Amino acid sequence: MEAARELHGQLSEIDRLVVAVGSAGTAAGLALGIHLLDWPVLLDAQCVSHTAEESESDIRRLAGEAAELLGVDTGDLAHVRVSDGAVGPGYGVATDEMWEALHLFARTEGIALDPVYSGKAAAGLVAGVRSGAIGPDETVVFMHTGGLPGLFAYAPELVRLSENSR
CATH number for the 2-164 domain, one of 3.30.465.10, 1.10.260.40, 3.40.50.1100, 3.30.980.10? Predict the structure, then answer.
């Protein structure tokens, strides 16, 4: 929720916030924070391990528990969109789309992503742009939630793919 408050203070004129969803804590906090701020931004939650239905349920449950602790209402959370299109065959299993997004972010933005969380969320973002689900006029913020040490576990595959892309 604090991240939503800070982002709103710095970047209140955005249309969409893209975040990875694993255990759903980050997405739930952002969803509730966005609601409490009455911030008209879409939270695009990209699943990295579970189905969209499971992840949406987790987000709603955690946001509800946090709201209860704070004595506030969660609202309908209609601003949350959950997608599992980037999960691939499973948690921690790299996909071609993830590797492509990882290379794209490194090459064009100088941002290192990990293959498990941020890489799959970035693959979902790239797919959304390419399909037109994310419009060319939208201002999008990608929430990088860390995980860089995970990249080293995939070093042999990363080197092989990098050599093949030359």
Answer: 3.40.50.1100
